[in-house]
Known about the structure:
It contains three helices and six strands; from the N terminus they run βββββααβα. The chain has helices at residues 78-87, 89-94, 103-110; strands at residues 29-31, 38-40, 45-49, 57-61, 71-74, 100-101.
Amino acid sequence: MGRDGRLSEAGSRSRHPDQAPEHLGPGPVRTCVGCRARDLAARLVRVALADAAAEPSAVVIDTARRLPGRGAWLHPDPKCLDLAERRRAFARALRVPGPVDTRAVRERLEAPRPAQTPGTGPG
Length: 123
């Protein structure tokens, strides 16, 4: 805090209040590489390189969020995956040269999710 009791310009306040992490709730905030929207990490999936030495580089969903190396965050929505592929965002975020194979991520995102029976879901 500054002398006058306010946060400095470099503090945690954002110039865009609608994008400030405070409105999202508690927890770490990440940016989706597809739509570029900021969201809670709990609402995004982490993708990482399957094998850094493989050519071409392939990304997989890191369900445990523990794979080594750089990761990128993505909404679990095929539309965000399409945007990320169109923008070549995975290669840039993961800092790999050349194209990135996203077939495993696409298969996982487009797979039908099992229906929840009442009373078994979160809540």
